Amino acid sequence: MAILRTTPGGRPSVTLERTLAHPPEKVWHAVTSPEELAHWFPAAVALPETPAPGGKITFTFTETGDTSEGEILGYQPPEVFEFTWNSDLIRIEVSADGTGSKLAFTHVFNRNEPDIALLGAGRHVTGWVACLDSLEAALDGRTPEMPSDWHARMVHYIEEFGLEDGEVLDDGTIRFRRDLVWPPVEDVWKRLPQPEDGAQVLESRSPEVLAYTWLHDGKPAGRVRWEVTADPLDGVRVELTQTVPAELRDQLPDLLTARHEQLNALFAGTFGVELEPWSAERKAEIRQRYSS
């Protein structure tokens, strides 16, 4: 189960819950011992010899050698392990459940503005679900199976959390903001939808900004702008805006539906997945969502 919440401080967070067929002491060892963390945590973890609040943690990605730091905020064996990773917060809670345990794993996204941080929730949950699958396999004495269907898994949570939907700003502008994970920005740039015949390119700065006019009845009706942002800690995201004049506001559901399909295809393409064009029924379903 994945639960998306907002903290009292206004930060987005996700909590994953698991029921494990192992006693709390065994689970606690698996989530606090560097040797056991190596079986499931995404980075190698170095802890103080005697972990306690205020202690420093080092995280190392073994494939690249990149390191980052964190701090222990809570350490209450065998129940609570809470720490920061860069500026994000991780809280692991273990409690008895009959002869087994319940595990609650919470990730609070503290980087960037809350609305931007929220965009990565689908990606983060997908990764943590795979990590906790590996944890459960290690506890059971099984060899974990790494998933290959990352795109489909991320789409599941993106849809569940409502992160794929566009919005209409107060001035009638359409806006979509989507997390693209970690593709090369040059690949994203090549996949951006191009202007239709007869439209004018207003700005083109590879691989960051592409803006052009969009046409209605063969005449310029507004501006479409794609902006690709690469963050060294949070990956790549794209923002699409499209201005819509007041006299064409009745077309907003159709315009939102068309851009929604384009964003889904762009996201899939960065995973090497080519989507089939939406059916008339699918378009009608999404249009109805934007009409309500």
Key attributes of the depicted protein:
292 residues, alpha+beta, six-stranded antiparallel β-sheet, 29% helix, elongated
Short recap of the structure:
The chain has 292 residues and is α+β, with helices and mostly antiparallel strands.
Could you walk me through the main structural features you see in this protein, from its secondary elements to its overall organization?
Helix 4 packs across helix 5 (150-160) and helix 7 packs across helix 8. The protein has helices at 24-32, 34-37, 114-118, 121-140, 150-160, 185-191, 252-269, 280-291, and strands at residues 2-6, 12-20, 44-46, 56-60, 67-76, 80-85, 88-97, 100-108, 167-168, 174-181, 201-205, 209-216, 219-231, 235-242. The strands form two sheets. The chain has an eight-stranded antiparallel beta sheet with strand order 1-2-8-7-6-5-4-3. Strands 9-10-14-13-12-11 form a six-stranded antiparallel beta sheet, with helices on one face. By secondary structure, it is α+β, with helices and mostly antiparallel strands. The protein has two domains: 2-158, START domain (Alpha-D-Glucose-1,6-Bisphosphate, Chain A, domain 4), CATH 3.30.530.20; 165-291, START domain (Alpha-D-Glucose-1,6-Bisphosphate, Chain A, domain 4, 2-Layer Sandwich). The chain contains eight helices and 14 strands. A hairpin with a 2-residue loop joins strand 12 and strand 13. The mean pLDDT is 97. Helices cover 29% and strands 35% of the residues.
CATH class call of the largest domain: Alpha Beta
Please, what is the CATH homologous superfamily of the largest domain?
Answer: START domain
Could you give the order of strands across the largest sheet? 1-2-8-7-6-5-4-3
User: Total domains, how many?
Assistant: 2
Q: Main sheet, how many strands, which sense, barrel?
A: 8 strands, antiparallel
Q: How does CATH name the architecture of the largest domain? A: 2-Layer Sandwich
Q: What order do the SSEs take from the amino end to the carboxyl end, as H and E?
A: EEHHEEEEEEHHHEEHEEEEHH
Q: What is the radius of gyration?
A: 22 Å
Mean of all residue-level pLDDT scores: 97
Number of DSSP E strands = 14
Strand content: 25-35%
Pfam families: AHSA1
Family: Belongs to the AHA1 family.
Domain Activator of Hsp90 ATPase homologue 1/2-like C-terminal: 22-139
InterPro entries: ASHA1/2-like_C (IPR013538), START-like_dom_sf (IPR023393)
